[in-house]
Design goal:
The structure holds two protein chains of two kinds. Chain A is of the alpha+beta class. Chain A is built from four helices and seven strands, in the order H-E-E-E-H-H-E-E-H-E-E. In chain A, a hairpin with a 2-residue loop joins strand 6 and strand 7. Classes of the chains: A alpha+beta, B alpha/beta.
Amino acid sequence: MKAALEEIMSQVTIETLEKLAFMFAFPAEGAGDQAEDSTVTGEVSFSGPFSGTLVITISVDVLKELTANMLGIDDEEESTESQRSDALKETMNIVCGNLLPAIGGDQVVFDIGVPEVLPSMKDLKDKAGIPKESTPSARVTLELDEGKCLLFLFLDGGIPENLVLPQSR
Amino acid sequence: MAINTLIVDDSGVMRSMILKTLRMTEVPLGDIHQAGNGREGLDILNDQWIDLAIVDINMPVMGGEEMIARMREDPELKEIPVIVVSTEGSRARIERLEHMGVAFIHKPFTAETVRDTINNILGLGENDESCT
């Protein structure tokens, strides 16, 4: 179940990055879940038939490219921190918005919270308000030209036993 | 005919993306107005002549669904075509919006989808290959 969940997370995120910002990501092979030193982390919570939090940690260089591509900024221009924060929030919103129906189907209703960018990545769980003892129900590491993108899906109470995942898309 | 357009989304980056995409579609754009939530959107609709409203759903202060419901209750605003651009994945919610007479575009979107949806809702003619 966890592997299938991670494959769906991976597919949804890859498709989102490609359609949103023309960025091509690939599942990392054999890599750990540690991003580079210079990263930005954000989270978005959701509730519905199952509830939880999606946490994304992204290399600063990936975020800069993501922001520039979303805004159509020229190479010579530099995005502002505010624009990068906004771009990460919107990306999290879109990934989460597409992930939940991919997991739970389109007949159920989820409420997605307001995405937040966290100050730093020193202690992911503390910053995201996630209890230290909890482990993610699924985690994905994606590689891009500019760096890495890590996703952690924390489901309250773990993966529901009655969850029937659709076929991978 | 130039289309005066209102873009309502709490994300400035997404408003910029929608505007960038609109400019790629060769839809004849007039004045472009932007709002960060439904309340601001209604204020602009009451002050400006708007031909098309492009509205997000999940926003602070006032969400898109409430904004559209208020538009549909207002004799001055109820006929304005509305396109919802959202990540919403619930079929029930999408159908509820469609019953309010709006078109729906799922995020992330392509320029072709935006162009075709605008042409369809405004009756601007057949789809073509004009996205660049």
